[in-house]
């Protein structure tokens, strides 16, 4: 599979390239808008996916070219969803994002296209799609998919969790009502040689609660003098 990606930032290209190669996917980067627009006009058929990282100063004249976008599957990386004309083959990932999230999105698109066409003839694909479309944990209000790190609250995707916030939620929710000490959480989620102290847990718990709509402070509970637990027995 061949992917064309418009990405101006070298640090992001360096993060994404090895992840794509690990999947045996070829990815070509374009860093200038004029070259990208020219590549789209002349060589669109070469690519299976187009990925566009949108920055405010981009001059992507083909950004909302409906005719061209109908010819190819496009993934936009953006902080402003409203600037994208939504088409059936247009997909959006809200920034900030991780390379793992991008890979998971591409696989979701591939499998959703293949499974209806081939059905049970490709059991491996059907098995794989379950990794991305089912959830490892489902509670009354929460769903977690470990492969994609997707978190849903009342079937709405929870955006912008940091890696540590996600790991905290995952750890707590896997053992509901079990009390975790701050030291235990540090050992589980942070490196053993982490130089910080247990107050780091308090800070991350505070931000995690704020990011979880409605239920944050109710389900992530403080056990005074001990630590924290996940309890969905909402009051």
UniProtKB/TrEMBL annotation:
Gene3D superfamilies: 3.40.50.2300, Winged helix-like DNA-binding domain superfamily/Winged helix DNA-binding domain. InterPro entries: CheY-like_superfamily, OmpR/PhoB-type_DNA-bd, Sig_transdc_resp-reg_C-effctor, WalR-like, WH-like_DNA-bd_sf. The keyword Iron does not apply. Signal peptide: none annotated. Keywords: DNA-binding, Phosphoprotein, Transcription, Transcription regulation, Two-component regulatory system. Residues 134-232 bind DNA. Residues 134-232 form the OmpR/PhoB-type domain. This is Transcriptional regulatory protein SrrA.
């Amino acid at each position: 599979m061949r992917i064309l990606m418009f990405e101006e930032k070298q640090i992001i290209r360096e993060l994404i390239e090895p992840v794509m190669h690990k999947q045996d996917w070829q990815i070509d980067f374009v860093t200038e808008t004029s070259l990208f627009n020219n590549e789209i006009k002349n060589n669109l058929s070469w690519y299976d996916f187009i990925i566009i990282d949108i920055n405010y100063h981009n001059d992507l004249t083909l950004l909302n070219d409906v005719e061209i976008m109908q010819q190819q599957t496009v993934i936009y990386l953006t902080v402003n969803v409203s600037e994208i004309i939504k088409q059936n083959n247009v997909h959006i990932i809200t920034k900030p994002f991780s390379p793992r999230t991008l890979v998971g999105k591409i696989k979701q698109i591939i499998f959703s296209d293949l499974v209806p066409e081939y059905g049970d003839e490709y059991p491996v694909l059907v098995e794989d799609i379950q990794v991305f479309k089912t959830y490892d944990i489902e509670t009354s209000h929460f769903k977690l998919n470990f492969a994609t790190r997707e978190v849903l609250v009342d079937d709405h995707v929870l955006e912008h969790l940091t890696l540590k916030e996600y790991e905290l939620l995952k750890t707590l929710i896997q053992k509901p009502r079990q009390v975790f000490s701050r030291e235990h959480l540090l050992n589980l989620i942070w490196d053993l040689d982490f130089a910080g102290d247990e107050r780091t847990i308090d800070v991350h718990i505070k931000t995690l609660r704020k990011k979880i709509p409605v239920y944050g402070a109710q389900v992530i509970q403080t056990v005074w003098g001990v630590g924290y637990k996940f309890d969905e027995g909402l009051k």
